[in-house]
Amino acid sequence: MICQGRVWVVDDDRSIRWVLCRALQNAGFEAIEFEDAERASAALSGDEPDAIVSDVRMPGRSGFDLLAELRERAPKVPVIITTAYPDLDSAVSAFQGGAFEHLPKPFDIDEAVDLVSRAI
């Protein structure tokens, strides 16, 4: 299978990371897990993915903090923001911050994979 691209999944919920990474891998993506924004940020120093799927609410830095950093350090990398607390303010903040898309949880896994495909 040809690799469709490299995707970083940033979420403090291990089960969400596991399910999303497996679905992305089954669709031909290389999926790499990060449990928080700090680890993803550190990895950016030597690497750059084709797309990132990041939760908003995590211990430490938020997904919005990571999004702001990415707009500075890797502006061409599309970021899909996910949240279990969807509201209009969250969606607006995601788009104003430069997110490719805002994906409320719980999300359909096939929809998430399709969204990553479109982002790349």
By oligomeric state, this entry counts as: single chain
Instruction: Output the CATH homologous superfamily.
Output: Response regulator
SSE sequence, one letter per element: EHEHEHEHEH
Q: In terms of per-residue confidence, which ranges show pLDDT below 50 for 5 or more consecutive residues? A: none
Strand content: 15-25%
Number of domains: 1
CATH architecture: 3-Layer(aba) Sandwich
The shape, in one word, is globular
CATH class: Alpha Beta
Biggest sheet character:
5 strands, parallel
For the termini, the CA-CA separation is: 17 Å
Structural class: alpha/beta
How many strand segments? 5
Strand order of the largest sheet: 2-1-3-4-5
* Alpha carbon gyration radius: 13 Å
What's the mean pLDDT score? Answer: 92
Helix share bin:
40-55%
Number of helices: 5
Concise summary:
The chain is an alpha/beta fold.
Structural features, described:
The chain is α/β, with parallel strands linked by helices and 120 residues long. It has a single domain (5-119), classed as Response regulator (Rossmann fold), CATH 3.40.50. The chain is 43% helix and 22% strand. The protein has 5 helices and 5 strands, in the order βαβαβαβαβα. The protein has helices at residues 14-26, 37-44, 63-73, 88-96, 109-119; strands at residues 5-10, 29-34, 51-55, 79-83, 101-104. The longest helix is centred in the first third of the chain and has 13 residues, at 14-26. The two termini are 17 Å apart.
